[in-house]
Amino acid sequence: MKIYLVRHGQTDWNLRGIVQGQTDVPLNETGIAQARVLRDKIRGIDFDICYSSPLKRAAETAMIAVGKRCSIRYDDLLKERYFGEFEGRPGAEMRERAPNIGDFKINTNFGGIEPVKDLLARAEDFLAKIKRECAGMENVLIVGHGSMLKAIHFAIIGWDEDTDFWSWHLENSEIRDYELSEGRVERVLKDIEKQLYVDLNGANLKFYRDGATVSTVINVDNQYLVKIENFETIRTQLEFLRAYPDSRFQQVMCFNEELSYVCFKFIDGEKYNKANIDPIDATEQICEIVCGYTPYKHTGYGFLGDEKESWRAFLLDEIEYAQRRIPQVSQDKVMAALDVAGATELKEKYLMHGDFGTHNFLVEKGVIRVIDPMPVVGDYLYDFYFALLSNVKIFTHLGMDYVLSYFERDLEYKKALLIIALYVRMSRAAAYDAEHLQDYIDLYTNI
After folding, report:
1. Which of 65, 138, 303, 377 shows the greatest Cβ crowding within 10 Å of its Cβ?
2. Is the pLDDT of residue 213 over 60?
3. How large is the average pLDDT for residues 362-382?
């Protein structure tokens, strides 16, 4: 199948350098003339179907360009990227105030802008949809918008965290074509069908771009959750999940090293922040989960695949990594905490989740389920504290004395490990939860 990407014709806002996003601006006279030129340019191509964004500037371009030569389907997935508070404002202002909106590492939603990875997931949703709906067709025309078509372009050719989102561009009414052959996603789904003896033909696929990773995550009919990423990461996840098969963690259905994917049973739960769960109840469940960790015979400490020689070395590595993100925060308190926690020899070490926080919690009928392990070998108290600090509202509701009342361990060690977990969590807030960074800084200052 060959697909043709076309950007809509010019609008007055294009001419003035105003951010349009999902604001519904029609073509101007130049844009109408450009669509007519496009019509003549593609006259020799026999299109089976045309897909268009429903926004006026794209819909008008599609109607002028193809007329009655083929049917037009309007699809919300093709709407332009949402630019939040910057819509209707000069593009120069947005570029100055939000310079990182094309950065795959930061994935910002500053000012309500749709994060770039969400845009890419929407593009992948659309490509999967037309592969199903247009099977057997030869030529498909797609009329859309600048940023959305960038996302489709990169979804086809591939990208990584160093990709420059702005390195590819379509002018108004410009056209590009691509061969859309069977890709990695299709091969993965066929392998799942073979391994699980299921039929996924016609399954509803929902794509996600997960947090700070470049993995592709696919919800398949609310039955399976498929993660496609580097298999070394998958390998460590499998090591963890094999250790706790009958637990609150994800259930592995199948995997394939060559295709570098793992398929989980879908967890039908709400994200923690949207679930109505009492903080004390949540704390009890978090405690129950970490108490289910079992001793783990292993030579090193820390993240599987990147182990350190001691518990202190792992904690120091966590602190040093955090320092690069929050240089404005005094290190005296956390380094004093390291002198206490790092001097304690662990009697047992455990295989724990490693990214144990509310961002990885799903609540199913009041029960916390946990996804996306980044396995760590060490003291399960670190996971416990990190989880309670992953949502600053939980910790402030409970108070430090209540949190420290859990587990019969040396009080000074518990307090020191909690301070280190807070410092590390504060650095994560700097990168991914800037809205609450000051709350964490205040908590760290006063603890």
Report:
1. 65
2. no
3. 95
**In the predicted structure, residue 59 carries a pLDDT above the cut 80:** yes
> Regarding beta strands 49-52 and 224-228, do their DSSP bridges make them parallel or antiparallel, or are they unpaired?
unpaired
* CA angle, residues 239, 245, 247, in degrees to nearest 5: 120
CB-count burial class (<10 Å; 0-12, 13-18, 19+) for 332: exposed
Question: How many other β-carbons are positioned within 10 Å of the β-carbon of residue 1?
Answer: 17
CATH topology of domain 271-446: Aminoglycoside 3'-phosphotransferase; Chain: A, domain 2 (3.90.1200)
Catalytic residue from among 60, 80, 87, 114:
80
Active site residue 8: yes
* Domain 184-265 grouped into CATH 3.40.1360.10: no
Decide: residue 135, CB within 10 A, 0-12 exposed, 13-18 middle, 19+ buried.
Answer: exposed
Average pLDDT over residues 330-346: 93
- Kindly tell me the sign of the dihedral angle through the C-alpha atoms of 58, 63, 64, 67: positive
Per-residue confidence (pLDDT) for residue 105, from 0 to 100: 65
- Kindly report the CATH number that applies to the domain delimited by 2-179: 3.40.50.1240
User: Is residue 80 flagged as an active site residue?
Assistant: yes
d(CA 373, CA 236): 8
Report CA 353 to chain centroid distance, whole Å: 18
334 in Cβ contact with 425 (< 8 Å): no
Per the listing, tokens 């793992």 go with 262
Set 8, 145, 153, 353: catalytic member = 8
Going from N- to C-terminal start, the domains of the chain cover 2-179, 184-265, 271-446
| Separation of alpha carbons 123 and 97, rounded Å | 26
